[in-house]
Amino acid sequence: MPKLTIDDLKRIKEETTKATALRHDGEVRIKITVHMGTCGIAAGAREVMKSLMAEMAEADRQDIRVVTSGCMGMCSSEPNITVEVIDSEPIVYQHMDANRTRQVFRRHVLQGEVQTDFALAKL
Amino acid sequence: MRELSLHILDVVENGITAGAGRIEIRVEESLAADRLKLTVRDDGPGMPPEKASNPEDPFITSRTTRRVGLGLSLLAAAARRCEGDLTVAAEPGRGTEVAAVFRHSHIDRAPLGDVAATLAMLIIGNPHIDFAYSHTVDGDEFSLDTRELSEGGADLSDPGTVRLVEQGIREALATMNRNSGREETSHAQADH
Ligand SMILES: Nc1ncnc2c1ncn2[C@@H]1O[C@H](COP(=O)(O)OP(=O)(O)O)[C@@H](O)[C@H]1O
Ligand SMILES: [Mg+2]
Q1: Which domains does chain A have, with CATH numbers?
Q2: Which of A3, A57, A72 sits opposite B160 (nearest CB)?
Q3: What is the model's pTM?
Q4: Do B149 and A72 touch (CB under 8 A)?
């Protein structure tokens, strides 16, 4: 069984309808952080990340970045994500799952409406 | 944890938190020897010797946000429940290698789970870290190295590209499972 190569990626890309750029640059205006300690992982951080990646691919916005970081120490509210829009205060969202993540992405990240129901606090 | 791939994610996160630049993940399945081994190796500062020799002790942790560290003790317990064990080799300044062995057919062994999603999220979430993955099932092998993919022109900070990688992993692991005559483990089960 071989190695995954660039050619494999090109082949898969041709097989999938949605075209994606293989390279891009640009300013990051919105950063989404998924917190990934043991508790967050056990509570479903990977599913949160998965839904973010699907939303990102759909939105196709070069100015949004999704990153992961370590545990915030707020285990009881995991999975947590933080949304930072340039020039605004970061918002931490708690008890995230795939649906809540989609809502936060579509309403807060794309339209600027903070989803206060899910928000833990302003940092 | 429900899946071994979530343990992998957690152990890899330790290496990232410690400041590693490259992390190698190995899954070795020997159906013949009824053994499954997970190895995560990083080039970070090395686990403190006290923890490396007592990885299952939750009270040894460098975190400041909480008094106990759970990740390695959970993995050690999972391995021991399956007639296996957890070992750590660390060298100050050179890195850490964590290895967990399980009896493959043990009834309590969690499924490997969604390795493709796990790797995809590590890659997209940590654009400055190189990840290498290798997976063997008896004589069959699949591997990938993000550094090589980047050098070949893939922008792994682009979610669309990482989804292609994820799909490539999924396809390759499915083929490998099919070759070994089983439909096991590498597909996501519903999480509930
Ligand atoms: N790859 C590594 N490199 C350096 N130190 C590590 C590594 N993995 C674990 N450690 C040390 O072991 C401790 C315990 O790890 P773990 O059991 O995962 O719990 P936690 O990450 O919650 O502290 C960490 O706090 C850290 O000090
Ligand atoms: Mg940990």
Answers
A1: 27-122 (3.40.30.10)
A2: A57
A3: 0.89
A4: no
